[in-house]
Amino acid sequence: MDFLYSEEQRMLADSLRRLVDQAWTRPQRRAREAAGRLDADAWGALADLGVLGLTIAQDAGGFGEVPASLLPVHLELGRGLVAEPVIPSAVMGAALIDACGGAARRQWLPAIASGERVVSVAWQEPGQRYQAAPETCRAVRSDAGWRLDGAKHLVWHGATAHAWLVSARGGDGMTVLLAVPADAAGVRVLDTPTLDGARCARLDFSGVALPADALLAQGPEADAALAQALQWGTAALCAHVAGAMERLLEITVDYLKTRQQFGQPLASFQALQHRLAEMLVAKELALSMAYVAVAALSEPDLAQRRRMLASAKLEVARTGRLVAQLAVQLHGGMGMTDELEVGDYFKRLTVADLLLGDSAEQLAVLEELA
To answer: What are phi and psi of 152, to 5 degrees?
Structure first.
C-alpha cells in the first residue's frame, strides 16, 4: 500500500491545514457551537478549496478525485476538529446520490460540490440501533407520488440540511430512498447538540406528500446505494479520527515539554515517556487502518470491503479511546477542565466510536463474515 501523497494531494493538504489553522481556532469553533447553525463563511471556504466537491465527478460539478484523496483531506479536518457537515453531505450524501444516478445526480451533486446545498442521510430509526434496512419508516405510493410516515433519529446535521435522503420501507417490503426537502409539510425536526460540538436531529414524518420524482432508488439498487454511503462515510471518519489523534498527541507532547515538576520538564520522566510512546504507536496504527478503510472503497469484493471497513473502524475507535484517555491523564487535573483543548479532542474521539456503527456493531459484522 502506497502511503505517499501525490503532488496534488500534498498541495491540497497544505492549503487545507493553513485554512483550518486560520478559521478553526478554538474560540472560533466554540462560537460556532454556541450559534448552533452552519457558518456560511466557513462552509464557503471549504467549498472554494474543493473539499466539498473532491470526489464528485467532473461532469457533476466536482473534481473527480479517487477515493484515496479522502485521506489527506479528512486527516486535516480531523486535526482541526472541523465539525461542519462535510462527511454527512459531501461524502455520504454525494456517494448515495451518485450511486442512484438519474435526474437527482444532475440536480443535487453540483449544488453539493459548490456548497449551495447540504444534504444528510436519514437512515437510523429509534429502537433499531445500526440496522440499515428500514422497518418503521414507511413510504407508500399515492396519486401525487409518495406518502411518507415514520421517524428517523440521530440524523447527522439533520437540521442544517436543505434535504434529507431518507430510507423507508415500501409497500412491497423493499427499501425506498426518497429525497425529502427540509421545508416539506408534515415534518417535525428536533435539533440536538452532540457531545463533540456537532449536531444531530430527530425527524418525524406525518403524512408527508412527495412528488413522484422524489424517488431516488428502490429495491436492491436502494440497498446498494445506502451501503455505499455508509461505507464512504466510515472511511472518511476513520481518516478524521486519525487526524484528531495526531494533533492531540502533538498537544500532549508540547504540554509535557512545557510543564515542569521538581525543576524538570514532565517530558523528561521515563514513565511519562512510555505513555507517549503508547500514544504514538496507537496513532500510527490508526493511520495505517485509515489507509485500509480508504483502500476498501476500491475493493471489488463486497465481503472483503465490509471486512476491511469493519476492521478499520474497530481499530481506529479502540486506539482513539486509548489516545484520548492517556492525553487527559497526562494533563493531570487540568485535563479534566474545559479550559484546555484536550477535552475537545477527547469528546470528538469518544463520539466517533458511536458514529456509523460502534465497536460492538463492527465485531458483529466481522463475526458474520467469519
So the answer is: -130, 145
